[in-house]
Design goal:
The complex is a heterodimer of chains A (161) and B (200). Chain A is 72% helix and 0% strand. With 161 residues, chain A is mainly alpha-helical. The longest helix of chain A is centred in the N-terminal third of the chain and has 45 residues, at 2-46. The radius of gyration of chain A is 26 Å and the shape is flat. Helix content of chain B is 79%, strand content 0%. The longest helix of chain B has 35 residues, at 132-166. Classes of the chains: A mainly alpha (161), B mainly alpha (200). The interface between A and B is large, with 56 and 61 residues.
Chain lengths: 161, 200
């Protein structure tokens, strides 16, 4: 029970810290935006009236659905790398130490997962908030695992009850 | 191996379709991650599950891993072709991805048939009566691989719907979004394979 409460408190503290950071970043951005608007307003007042065409041709920052902002790694090399790692995990049985085998299998799986998520899914090119979203999921899963670990693994189970 | 990004976008510059697919992927990771964590905890709690895991076919699992990795490669090549507006290649690579999905399901069907024939089914059957703890392994096995199989079917449907428009040059940006979902399906299998087939 204490372990679960500790994990919950840690999660809440981290969430609060992340929110504080985000609020401070947003406040700074809003201040900058206000300054830009003020300066543009002054220029607009002193400039002659613009036509509709001119205003429409003005560049604005709008997401473009088919916009490609990320780079393209050599996908064939990544595919070959994935197959090589898969091969390593398949022949891991030759190692006599069982713990070493388990470590090797799961470390290759982790590297493969990272290769897929960063290169094939292009996560490394996405904004930080999307990366935080995915990392948040991983963090919650880890908290879930270690939070209930003592209740599942360390207690005796009587199936007859 | 890496390529430089054209620019680092802010969240507001990310196309809404792509943003939505990332939120969906995060949700899916919670579902599969929760299942995988529960399985891991039970596996540590019941070391005797190793006897049951020894009955899963590493060969069929390995074939399916190669099939899914190849399909992911095709999906990303389809996205690359879509950016170059090469509709012929988009159609070819997306069709190949869907074909790989079919192949995965066929192999999975063969595997399920073999296991059920050998009496490895969900709890409540004759295996459960003789080995109640061991049979729970098979409950996890069928739940995780079955849910994953369901996602493969959903992914194939999404790819097919996107392909219908993309081959005419319409909504080409959706090729990448469908691809991200497909890679997520591959990502889940990357963890299911060692958990259920190799760690024995």
């Amino acid at each position: 029970m204490i372990e679960i409460l500790t994990v919950i408190v840690i999660i809440l503290a981290i969430l609060a810290a992340v929110m504080l950071v985000q609020v401070s970043i947003l406040t700074a951005k809003l201040n900058n935006a206000e300054q830009v608007i003020e300066s543009e307003h002054l220029v607009f007042d002193s400039s002659p009236r613009r036509s509709v065409e001119e205003m429409l041709s003005h560049e604005v920052s709008v997401p473009v659905e088919d916009g490609d902002y990320h780079g393209h790694p050599k996908y064939l090399y990544i595919f070959i790398g994935l197959l090589a790692l898969f091969g390593i995990s398949l022949v891991s049985d030759i190692i006599p130490n069982n713990t070493a085998v388990i470590l090797l299998i799961f470390s290759t799986a982790l590297i493969k997962a990272l290769m897929v998520i960063t290169r094939f899914m292009h996560l490394k090119y996405e904004p930080k908030l999307i990366i935080i979203l995915v990392l948040g999921v991983v963090f919650c899963l880890a908290a879930f695992f270690w939070g209930i670990y003592p209740d599942i693994v360390m207690k005796t189970l009587d199936l007859a009850k | 191996m890496d390529a430089e990004p054209l620019y680092k976008p802010t969240l507001s510059q990310v196309p809404k379709g792509r943003l939505a697919i990332w939120i969906l992927v995060a949700g899916e990771l919670v579902i599969f991650g929760g299942l995988i964590m529960s399985y891991l905890l039970s596996r540590v709690r019941f070391p005797e599950w190793a006897d049951q895991a020894a009955h899963t076919s590493t060969m069929w699992g390995a074939i399916n891993t190669i099939v899914l990795l190849t399909s992911s490669f095709f999906a990303v090549k389809a996205h690359e072709a879509a950016l170059k507006k090469n509709l012929q290649k988009v159609t070819l690579f997306m069709s190949s991805t869907i074909a790989c999905g079919f192949l995965f399901l066929i192999v999975k069907t063969i595997e399920y048939t073999n296991e059920i024939h050998h009496g490895f089914t969900l709890p409540g059957t004759h295996v459960a009566e003789t080995d109640p703890i061991g049979s729970t392994f098979w409950a996890y096995y069928f739940l995780m691989t079955g849910l994953h199989g369901l996602h493969v079917i959903v992914g194939m449907t999404i790819l097919f719907v996107v392909l219908l428009k993309a081959r005419k040059g319409q909504y080409l940006h959706r090729v990448e979004n469908a691809g991200i979902y497909w890679h997520m399906v591959d990502l889940v299998w990357i963890f299911l394979f060692p958990l259920l087939y190799i760690a024995k």
